[in-house]
Amino acid sequence: MKTITFSYGADLDWTSGLAKELDGRIEENLIISSETISIGDRFFTNLQKGVAVYYHNTTALVDMKMIQKNKSDDFIGVYYILAEKYSKYLSDDFSFDIGRWGYNFLIVDSKIESSYYIKAGTKTQAIAIFIKKSVIKAFAKTKYFFPDLDKIMNPPKNSIIRLDRMSNESVQEIKDLFKLKVGGAIFELHLEATVQLLFSNYLKKISTKRTIMEVDDSDFSNIITAKLFLINNIEGHFPNIKTISNIANMSESKFQHLFKKLTGKTVNTYFMHNKLLRAKELLEENDLTISEISDKLHFTNSSHFASTFKKHFGILPKQFIKNL
Fold it and tell me: Domain 2-207 belongs to what topology?
């Protein structure tokens, strides 16, 4: 296993250290890793004073243990992580599976030392935003009302501020960004726009007092388990509520109430929303016909699939394919 010890920060003085740990080098705004360790793009930039962004779209070629020991404690790290196969996040008190179908949204105080395990062959698409606490406080006080700003910024014992799953909208924004070729003015413009949208959406969510549950809350973990069950069975028929609530270890009424409270959607709506996102992925891959996708995702027929897709995305599947 390759052990890599590194530091992040809202300034970019950490990039050369990470490049060295990866047996690589810096070329303009790219960290070039040794191809014995990983392949892919690692791009970094400052959006403004006190805000840095680290984009990486990489595949690990060896098992890795990433140990984060920040040299500065004046920032918050906001991580959006889509990882296939296996990766795991650990701090002194927590251990969580990380990735597209596990926890994929983290907000971590810079004082925390943490480890991140990645198995060889794991493909990771991630955006990390490092924001100085002074910038967050200034922005929050001028843009949004935060009755508990000090609590958000200074969690007890400097524990993880939040570990969650990002919204489907955020997933789609990130996936669209990762379709672009890295480098150049167009890419940087899209990167900046995506980061601003992601961060703004999060601030709006917490400023409107949407429920935020602690990471060790059993109900939160059970809802995540139920969501993962739905995602893993997204190509099939909708499971009945009794089955899903049993998986969440809750009564049907409690499960449905808490699921909507945490996701903003009913269970049925959440399932169909993700089924249509899967349909969109399959259309983009262009390996199956519209009829085959309809059958694969268990729609009643192609007409039902087409009308449902248009109602959700505002365009028919055949028109969507022509626009690719």
Answer: Jelly Rolls (2.60.120)
Q: What is 218-322's CATH topology?
A: Arc Repressor Mutant, subunit A (1.10.10)
Summarised one tens digit per residue, pLDDT across range 15-29 is: 999 999 999 999 999
Cα 151 from Cα 108, distance rounded (Å): 14
End-to-end CA distance of the chain: 41
How far is Cα of residue 241 from the mean position of the Cα atoms in its chain? 27
> 309: closest CA among 288, 281, 285, 268?
281
Domain spans, the chain? 2-207, 218-322
pTM check: above 0.70 = no
What is the per-residue pLDDT across 79-95, written as a single tens digit (0 to 9) for each?
888 876 555 655 554 55
Distances (CA, A) of 7 to 58, 60, 87, 152, 251: 19, 19, 19, 23, 45
